[in-house]
Amino acid sequence: MSDKEFSLRCDILSLRIAGKIDSRFDTEKAISTVYSKGQIMNKPKVKLVGQDGNIFNILGIASRALKEAGYADEAKEMQTEVFASDSYEEALAIVLQYVDEADDDDEYECEECGSVIDSDDYECYGGLCEECYENGSM
């Protein structure tokens, strides 16, 4: 078992312990989601803490991140599952099957120049560093 697969199984176990996934079917669904198209999906990181907690806002953030990472089909699948969910908690658990929560100290690369930026600048400038953002908006 690879380190990534072990980490995935630990994440899923944590969800089961927390009561977010309550059956073997849900566990297998979570595993199959991460093994998208026969490969381990590199779940994009999104900053959810400090965001508007409305599920539609969270869904939008997660969908955008999935599409930017090349997982448009998974974004549609996630949306369909969230719309069919019965509660906020279930909807949030579905979103977290597709994306990872970003830590405050996570660093990102500017999508234009590749320089390292912190998560606040990444969110504030839409994936760009301040310099590229200002140059592009002039």
Short description:
By secondary structure, this protein is mainly alpha-helical.
**Separate helix tally:** 7
Kindly report the average pLDDT value: 75
Low-confidence segments: none
Structural class call reads mainly alpha
* Count of beta strands: 4
Order of helices and strands: HHEHHHEEEHH
- How much helicity do the residues have? 55-70%
- Biggest sheet overview: 2 strands, parallel
Strand order of the largest sheet: 1-2
How far the N terminus sits from the C terminus, by CA atoms, comes to: 50 Å
What is the radius of gyration? 16 Å
Beta-strand residue percentage:
5-15%
- Shape, per Cα inertia axes: globular
Q: Please, could you describe this protein's structure?
A:
This protein has helices at 3-17, 24-34, 55-68, 72-84, 88-98, 119-124, 130-136; strands at residues 45-46, 100-101, 107-109, 116-118. With 138 residues, the chain is mainly α. The chain is globular, with a radius of gyration of 16 Å. It has a two-stranded parallel ribbon with strand order 1-2. It is built from seven helices and four strands; from the N terminus they run ααβαααβββαα. The model has no long low-confidence stretch (mean pLDDT 75). It is 56% helix and 7% strand.
